[in-house]
Amino acid sequence: AVAAAMRLGAFLSALRPALPLLLGLSLGCSLSLLRASWSHSAAEERCLAPGPPAPPARGAPPEAAEGRPGPGHEDFRPRIVPYYRDPNKPYKKVLRTRYIQTELGFHERLFVAVLTSKATLNTLAVAVNKTVAHHFPRLLYFTGLRSAKVPHGMVLVAHGDERPIWLMYETMNYIRQHFGSDYDWFYIMQDDTYAQAEQVKALVTHLSINQDVYLGRAEEFIGGDEQARYCHGGFGYLLSRSLLLKLHPHLDSCRNEILSVRPDEWLGRCIIDFLGIACVSQLQGQHYHTYELAKNTEPEKEEEEEFQAALAVHPVSDMTLMYRLHKQFSRIQLDRVYQEIQDLQMQIRNLTALTPAGEAGVTWPVGINAPFLPKSRFEVISWDYFTEQHLFSCPDGSPKCELSGASKADVSEIIESAVEQLNRRYQPLLRFSKRQLLNGYRRFDPTRGMEYTLDLLLEAATQKGHSHVLAKRVSLVRPLSKVEIIPMPYVTEATRVQLVLPLTVQDLDFVANFLDMFAMNTLDTHDNALLTLLFIYHPYDAQRVGQVDVFAGVKAMVGELEKRYAEVKIPWISVKTEVPSQVKLMDIVSKKHPVDTLFFLASVWTEINMEFLNRCRMNTISNWQVFFPVHFQEFNPTLVYRGEQTASSNTDFLRDGHFDRHSFAEACFYNSDYMTARTKLAADILDRDEVLESMEVFDVFLHYSGLHLFRAVEPGLVQKYTLRSCNPRLSEELYHRCVLSNLEGLASRSHLAMALFEQEQANST
């Protein structure tokens, strides 16, 4: 019995960990059986229930009673389109659109048309352009007759006739023909109207695009039906895309049959007569608020709720009044935003107090992401030290440089903001004024923004006139704002790339590998890329070229490629110089190619591939942007592996190396952009050609062009380790860059430390 009890106890102890699982399975099976029996019985009752089916709900269509969508829901019913291919027709490749937005038929949201005239084009229209135009995604100005000179930054459409009805007719025709299929909403306003752009954009986001919308300030026709109303043109009005498409076929009839003096009345009568739609001031719960300005109105003194809620204000008599209105509405909007921020911060504090972390979980500033917490010492974000005159972390690597430009403006603004916040907190008891910035620190935290720590020497004055000098440390954050997408010109991947490869005598050992990679990745794949070789002869070698040509082997390899690929020609250019300046070499190449040529300035260690060439095409935009990739430089395998077998390239891709930020040898740019920048450089240096020896193509674009310089790491450019020869005849800066590139390309710090340790161990034994 004792033995049986011991065996039972051992069995139960072994079964104890599995008891919850067994109980869960048993309970689940029991509940599923019960639910199945209930469902079965309910189904039998429904099937066996006598009598006719229950009638649908009141007002519901028959289709809805049967579980099918009713009329008007056809657009939302999913449909399966079967794929069928006619075997008798040859297969044709389907060309898909570049962007998914185009393929899915998405439209832009809002188009704005401003009706102006020759008399007000340079006054009121310019004021509209400077105040609200940059807030709208697309804005055009329409006039009858244009002046001799169109103001800068304005897209103007002139119809050739100043008659108001004709101008409205031609404008509606133009909008339908050119933008009717691209936008969902069309906002029409006059140049004597001030519109709150952000409020108008917010309005259209709350309206359904499936309805015919004619929204504005509704006015009655003189002597007409009270139910028929038109939208007053002075306060602007909104038209939906569906209404514009339906109205377009009737515009000619409206022009011939409807007589009116005012263009807004003419358009309203046209919409009512042919579409039966009247203007409304309220739709789908959204109100179109307007405000009519009286004569000699002071916008700064307007405190009425009707004025503050207005989307459009009319009439605006002059440019100054337009700017004053914009300033006042901007102040109102800013106050609303600040109040909303305070309300949200209060809600965050109240909710955080209920969390497990309590009040300690509130970050500063409230609502901004907490500072980045590094997981290792390599992730620590360093602080940059600065004073009011100098910066001690300079872009060029120097320990100290003068504070100027945007950095100086940033420091001045942040000091003023700090003093202002202190006065706002301690007034009226204390009034602070800055005497000196003792210490300043800043760092950029990518999770929240720019952080500042300031040690300020302040003078504090009391209400009684007493003053005292004290030092105070303050912390500030300039948070990251809303991310905006910058519009860029459209580019394609079909552009031909012209590779330019400068070669010196020291590069002869690497030419064969370059040509092999070029043939494999471009010629074999029929990529749209050409190659031009630039043979740089030393004056001594140039004198002996008739006897011994140092580049004879390279020319033979080029001949073999041209025999293998009959349609390919690889030209070369011979240059004699002691100092191979990159700018002087490009001057020679630039003159031998058309202005629309896309150059890729390569080095002999570059391994060309299709992936990078496509990025070169996409990142280089004529008259807009040039591309300077940062290639990946592999470390010295002797130091990294120390006699061990080299790791597989698949597993250690971009591992045993670094991105060489000191090298500017590779570049993608258009010939036209280079010629423009080079012309400005020539006018600056006059005939001092020796200056060109201290410059690279990067410096030319940086200092003598207004283009975007896009410099980014490029994983598609991987170079094997090579000890480059640095020409001492180049400028000190270029020679220093070359030396640093060689030194940092040896190995990582851990590899160098291991090599030194092994050397010391060997010396000690």
UniProtKB/TrEMBL annotation:
Repeat listed as a keyword: no
Major site of localization recorded for this protein: Golgi
EC number: 2.4.1.-
Membrane topology, as annotated: Single-pass type II membrane protein
GO function terms (MF aspect): glucuronosyl-N-acetylgalactosaminyl-proteoglycan 4-beta-N-acetylgalactosaminyltransferase activity; N-acetylgalactosaminyl-proteoglycan 3-beta-glucuronosyltransferase activity
GO (cellular component) term, any one: Golgi cisterna membrane
UniProt-annotated stretches for the region Disordered: 47-79
Top EC group: transferase
Biased composition (Pro residues): 50-59
Location(s) in or outside the cell: Golgi apparatus, Golgi stack membrane
Keyword Magnesium: no
Pfam family, any one: CHGN
Keywords: Glycoprotein, Golgi apparatus, Membrane, Signal-anchor, Transferase, Transmembrane, Transmembrane helix
Family under the similarity heading: Belongs to the chondroitin N-acetylgalactosaminyltransferase family.
Name of protein: Hexosyltransferase
Annotated source species: Rhipidura dahli
Gene that encodes it: Chpf2
